[in-house]
């Protein structure tokens, strides 16, 4: 299927959802008259008329055949797949009429003007143009203007890793979409996406099972050594596959833990669970990225070899550990060298609430051996609301910024401005506009929220004010240092009311063992200024027994004392080059070479266990 429509089959496809509607709700199927993606639906509301989807959205339906670079070929809806989904040729033709025509111009054109109703009701200029809309993930990708050697890692309900691609070579290893903002006259460009549907939900579940707050979750990840143990031969691995994922985990569901290469029901040290979960999620992207390289979708060079950027790798000048692309016996049967960093991304641009956690940002940098950057809008918003995907009031979402960049790009062409008729593609024009703004304002940082006052000074304003991003890890502003009481999730409150506990097989012995391990090993697990200090819930796993209801007529002594979880301390910006700051990006994590080598050593065992799960051996 990937070779035919550019994407492998998974439950999120429009094709799969239409098939389910036809089989489960035939009455709804019979009354259906139009099927639209969210992006085209919003555009239709603004223009007051039905708007077709762009080619990037059409490619994500599982029903669209992209012509690629074949001479004379024309992109089109796949009638064969539509016939399978509809159950007959007539119903397949109905699906074609529901989806409508697709804009294959590249997105650099107006799709209409603001509707008459909105102009009269809300006072919009009747001549205001409406530009193409795209999906939230692709719009987030456009908002950070990645260079050819970058990778965008967007955390959320579904984690997505995106990178620019030069060639259209579809396989089931990844999804491939046409770039949603490119001029019809330029060479076609594409975006490779690696997705994971088991993202925020497993992270929240592990938080609920082993900690009381996101703060404890983050600190627990920070103090547990890589691989879950200090030893070299007893590393821990876990796979949290709560729902069917993309290839190769489409048919694998469940929670799997491995200790010394053997499947276990639970780790001996329960504190290892948060870190092992995150390592599994990020190692999955690292392994799938390396498996993507031989397909040739990135062209003759991949990763940091494609381009030099302003933040080079700390070992960029050193010779590779092994020859690039050579599959020798030291690779333990892998089709790539896990120690070869040349094909990995030169920078990781992270977005999403999970990226606000210092432990996750550092982990991503170590696994890919690349500096991690984040949008300054998100860094400032995290000082107010660090653990929500929705930004704090007054701070823009990255998808909205990406849509604004597209609007400015199309408007420039419509008005015939020098920027709009300039050279290069979408990313080059946005960089040029931001560079001109930087020079005209004397190096003033981009405003990160609507609550910030305008500034003409090059000196950054107070940390957390919204006018600029604070640098360093020193004293915070009043906003950043205010203790925010975290809200407990509804699931925990429900369990407290019902006394149901976690329902995951924890016995009283397990609870006692968890408390014993936490209190007795906290001192040895910490380093630096934390040594010798009494353990606290900010650095250790809290007492899970306090989440269960006491017996009737019994009131434990501990219940009279309520402890409030400390607030999550989000990432702050490190010293960053002007070239990155003028794009609205700031560095939040630097890679550690030794940590990268440690994770490279884990890759063969990770792939072996992954193969056992895929084959159904365990």
Task: Give the helices and strands, then pairings.
Blueprint: H1 2-5, H2 14-24, H3 26-31, H4 38-47, H5 55-59, E1 64-65, E2 76-77, H6 79-86, H7 89-99, E3 112-113, H8 116-122, E4 129-130, H9 136-143, E5 150-154, E6 159-165, E7 175-178, E8 190-196, H10 200-210, H11 214-223, E9 236-241, E10 254-259, E11 262-264, H12 272-292, E12 347-351, H13 358-368, E13 372-375, H14 376-382, H15 398-415, H16 426-440, H17 478-481, H18 490-498, H19 508-525, H20 578-581, E14 585-589, H21 593-615
Parallel strand pairs: 5-12, 12-13
Antiparallel strand pairs: 1-2, 3-4, 5-6, 6-8, 7-8, 9-10, 10-11, 13-14
Helix pairs in contact: 2-6, 6-7, 9-15, 10-12, 11-12, 12-13, 13-21
Write a short abstract of this structure.
This protein is an alpha+beta fold and 618 residues long.
Approximate strand percentage: 5-15%
* Low-pLDDT windows of residues: 308-316, 318-329, 453-562
Cα separation of the termini: 28 Å
Q: Specify the biggest β-sheet.
A: 7 strands, mixed
The count of helical stretches stands at 21
Kindly provide the radius of gyration, computed on alpha-carbon positions and rounded to a whole number of angstroms: 25 Å
Q: Report the average pLDDT across residues.
A: 78
**SSE class:** alpha+beta
Helix content: 25-40%
Question: Using DSSP, what is the number of strands?
Answer: 14
Instruction: Tell me the strand order in the biggest sheet.
Output: 7-8-6-5-12-13-14
Overall body shape: globular
């Amino acid at each position: 299927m990937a070779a035919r429509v550019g994407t492998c089959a998974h439950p999120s496809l429009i094709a799969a959802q239409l098939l389910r509607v036809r089989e489960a709700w035939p009455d709804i199927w019979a009354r259906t008259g139009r099927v639209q993606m969210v992006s085209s639906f919003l555009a239709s509301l603004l223009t007051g008329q039905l708007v077709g989807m762009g080619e990037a959205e059409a490619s994500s339906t599982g029903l669209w055949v992209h012509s690629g670079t074949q001479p004379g070929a024309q992109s089109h809806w796949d009638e064969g797949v539509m016939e399978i989904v509809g159950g007959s040729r007539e119903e397949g033709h109905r699906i074609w009429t529901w989806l409508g025509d697709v804009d294959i111009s590249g997105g650099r054109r107006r799709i209409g003007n603001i509707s008459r109703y909105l102009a009269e009701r809300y006072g919009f200029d009747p001549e205001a143009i409406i530009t193409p809309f795209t999906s939230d993930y692709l719009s987030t990708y456009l908002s950070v203007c990645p260079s050819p050697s970058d990778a965008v890692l967007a955390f959320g309900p579904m984690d997505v890793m995106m990178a620019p691609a030069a060639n259209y070579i579809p396989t089931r290893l990844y999804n491939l979409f046409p770039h949603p903002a490119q001029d019809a006259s330029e060479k076609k460009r594409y975006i490779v996406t690696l997705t994971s549907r088991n993202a925020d939900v497993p992270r929240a579940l592990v938080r609920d099972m082993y900690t009381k707050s996101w703060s404890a979750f983050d600190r627990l990840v920070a103090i547990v050594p890589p691989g879950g143990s200090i030893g070299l031969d007893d590393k821990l691995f876990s796979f949290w596959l709560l729902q069917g994922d993309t290839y190769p985990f489409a048919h694998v569901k469940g929670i799997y833990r491995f200790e010394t290469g053997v499947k276990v029901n639970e780790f001996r040290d329960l504190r290892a669970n948060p870190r092992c979960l995150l390592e599994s999620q990020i190692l999955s992207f690292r392994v799938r990225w390396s498996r993507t390289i031989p397909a040739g979708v990135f062209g003759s060079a991949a990763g940091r070899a494609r381009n030099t950027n302003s933040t080079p790798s700390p070992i960029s000048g050193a010779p590779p550990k092994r020859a690039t692309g050579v599959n020798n016996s030291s690779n333990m049967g892998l089709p790539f060298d896990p120690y070869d960093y040349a094909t990995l991304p030169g920078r990781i641009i992270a977005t999403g609430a999970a990226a606000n956690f210092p432990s996750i940002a550092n982990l991503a940098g170590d696994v890919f051996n690349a500096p991690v950057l984040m949008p300054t809008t998100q860094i400032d918003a995290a000082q107010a609301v660090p653990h929500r995907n929705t930004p704090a009031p007054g701070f823009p979402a990255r998808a909205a910024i990406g849509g604004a960049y597209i609007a400015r790009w199309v408007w420039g062409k419509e008005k015939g401005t020098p920027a709009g008729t300039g050279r290069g593609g979408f990313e080059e024009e946005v960089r040029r506009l931001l560079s001109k703004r930087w020079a005209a304002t004397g190096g003033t940082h981009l405003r990160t929220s609507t609550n910030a006052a305008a500034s003409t000074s090059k000196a950054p304003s107070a940390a957390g004010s919204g006018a600029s991003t604070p640098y360093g890890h020193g004293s915070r502003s009043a906003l950043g240092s205010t203790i925010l009481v975290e809200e407990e999730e509804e699931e925990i409150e429900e369990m407290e009311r019902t006394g149901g506990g976690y329902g995951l097989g924890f016995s009283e012995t397990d609870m006692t063992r968890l408390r014993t391990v936490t209190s007795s090993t906290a001192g040895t697990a910490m380093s630096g200024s934390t040594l010798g200090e009494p353990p606290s819930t900010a650095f250790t796993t809290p007492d899970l027994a306090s989440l269960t209801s006491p017996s009737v007529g019994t009131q434990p002594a501990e219940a009279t004392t309520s402890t409030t979880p400390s607030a999550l301390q989000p990432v702050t910006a490190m010293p960053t080059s002007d070239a990155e700051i003028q794009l609205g990006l700031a560095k939040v994590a630097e890679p550690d070479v030794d940590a990268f080598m440690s994770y490279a050593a884990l890759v063969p065992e990770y792939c072996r266990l992954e193969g056992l799960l895929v084959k159904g051996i365990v």
